[in-house]
Amino acid sequence: MKALVTGGAGFIGSNVVQLLLERGAEVTVLDNLSTGYRSNVPTDYVRFIEGDILDRQRLEQAASGAEVIYHLAASVGNLRSIRDPVADSMVNVIGTIYVLEAARAVGARKVVYSSSAAIFGELKHLPIREDHPIEPDSPYGASKLAGEKHCLAYYKIHGLQTVCLRYFNVYGIHQRYDAYGNVIPIFTTLLLKRERLSIYGDGEQTRDFINVRDVARANVLAGESETVNGAFNLGSGNSITINTLVRLLEEASGLKADYVYAPRRPGEVLHSLADIRAIGDALGFRPEVEMGEGLRDYVAWMRTEMNLP
Ligand SMILES: NC(=O)c1ccc[n+]([C@@H]2O[C@H](COP(=O)([O-])OP(=O)(O)OC[C@H]3O[C@@H](n4cnc5c(N)ncnc54)[C@H](O)[C@@H]3O)[C@@H](O)[C@H]2O)c1
Fold first, then answer.
1. Which atom of ligand 1 is least distant from the CA of 90?
2. Domain for residue 176, yes or no?
3. What's the DSSP call for residue 91?
């Protein structure tokens, strides 16, 4: 099977690439390396094309021969989108339409699109099913939603199969510390550097964390399916508090965390939890990576990445 992975040098994309290779697929990666790393991709086994999804010629060249396109390239994050909403939509909306057009042009069978729980905006009730109100409250949420709607329309109009996976909080190997507030890489980095962590509020807010290996497997199942189309929530179906997360990180690292409680951030979501029955029914997907195990792998990877003993 030939596959194109856009954004394949990024955190989640590189894990999708790894799993596709393990399944014997021939993989092309198209990535402009704006936030991705070439070192994330085993270039001996992958056709790596450095380029932008907004370069339509490059994109079509990368897509040629692909049966499935895993579309992960995106401008990622609420803060980034608030700073530059035009760039956000250029990549996430127009870029996605270019990917769908390229899929048609090369006769690809399916596009698997990385959507986001950011499309829901303020959460009204838990657990979050697919029919939860959709009212994004950032340009990023709006652009990911537009991408999703274009995918679903291409299925209706052109019969191009599309599956949209709405990720909740993804964590795991290849996720680096960034300025965009992902709590697991930030806490792990600070813990390993023996620096103090700030827990906002009382730490009893909850999140649904899903390991990137499970997310990669959901992508591959979606790509392999011959009949499934539509948009699905993708979390672990379990949530933990931030206080519990700190305890699990202590166990995973063998270190004692130094932390303080800081004022709650305005607008922060208090609780989040995905209902994952729909993706289970449609694709037979069940999360397999237990959080303690996922964090142990992650801490070990971060230690190597940070050159720590
Ligand atoms: N990390 C999460 O928790 C999360 C949650 C919800 C949704 N998502 C979605 O998952 C996908 C992957 O996110 P990630 O966390 O791996 O982020 P990432 O920034 O690590 O990966 C994005 C990749 O796309 C590449 N890219 C960006 N713009 C591009 C362009 N114009 N042309 C070609 N390549 C481009 C980047 O270089 C990077 O390698 C995104 O679509 C994102 O919206 C992620």
1. 31
2. no
3. I
Q: How far apart are CA 8 and CA 31, in angstroms?
A: 6
SS3 98: helix
In a domain, 283, yes or no: no
Q: What CATH number did the domain enclosing 299 receive?
A: 3.90.25.10
- pLDDT category at 179 given cuts 50, 70, 90 is low
Asked whether residue 100 falls in the same domain as residue 189, the answer is no
The string of pLDDT tens digits covering residues 263-277 is 998 878 889 999 999
**Containing structural domain, residue 154:** 2-171+209-235
Pocket test for ligand 1, best of 40, 76, 166, 171 (most atoms within 8 A of CB): 76
- Determine whether the shortest distance from the Cβ of 170 to ligand 1 is under 6 A: yes
> Buried b / exposed e across 16-51, counting CB within 10 Å, b at 16+?
bbbbbbeeebebbbbbbeebbeeebbeeeebebbeb
Give the residue numbers marked as catalytic: 140
> Is this prediction's pTM over 0.90?
yes
Q: In this model, does residue 32 exceed pLDDT 70?
A: yes
Q: Say yes or no: 17 and 121 in one domain.
A: yes
CA of 269 to the centre of ligand 1 (A): 22
Please indicate, yes or no, if residue 285 is contained in any of the structural domains: no
Indicate whether 263 and 164 sit together in one domain.
no
Residue 287: CB within 6 Å of ligand 1? no
Indicate whether 53 and 201 sit together in one domain.
no
Phi, psi of 169 (to 5 degrees): -85, 110
Query: Does 178 or 99 have the greater pLDDT score?
Result: 99
Q: Are 208 and 167 in contact (CB under 8 A)?
A: no
Domain membership flag for residue 19: yes
Ligand 1 binding pocket includes 141 (Cβ within 6 Å):
no
